[in-house]
Predict the 3D structure of the following.
Amino acid sequence: MRALRGAGLPGYRPLDHAGGPPGDAWLNDDGDVLSVHYFDLPPDLPAGLDDGPALRRTLTHRTARAGGGLIEASAKRLGGLPALRQILKLPLPLPLPRQPSGQVFIGSFTVPRKGCSTVVKVQAPERGMTGMREAVVMGEVGPEAYFRPHPYAPDVQGGLPFHVADHAQWDAKFPEHPLSRVRRTLDALTEAVTVDPAFAALPPFTGPAVGDSRL
């Protein structure tokens, strides 16, 4: 099912790739990849969208176990339907040639229904010199105020650390940073995306099934 429409934003061009139908992935000049996915199985969200604390806490631990860090997660609406908006960071699996290792920032909207879901996501890797945003922010706030307990799960261990440089308040100062670009793209998707009526008519997602082994 092509559940979402309008995800091919201005500035993105179709990306030819194997394993997917045409028109479900796009690339821009910064190297950011925008893609749409449909999953014909119950969503693997750990809680309903109306249970924000449990949802965010579990997602924070899940992301840390994968070696990353959850920057933000909240229930929003996309195309008129309830959706989970997430931004997370992961270490780049391998340094690009002649580049220090860095991070990739991933922003997404997951639109769950009872028996399926659709996801639109943008991936923006760091390129060239990395760490400038973090170094400048640490210099402004001081090392003692830079690293903080994760607001969703203060007891989380492992993964990438939570720090104030990832906050949206710094995006205006670093407009070309990949995290800033991810947030702009998510904002643009909120305005552009519509939902196929057949997908919208499916039964809503109210939470994971009891005994779901994927959680």
In short: The mean pLDDT is 91. The radius of gyration is 18 Å. Residues 4-200 form a domain with the Protein Transport Mog1p; Chain A fold (CATH 3.40.1000).
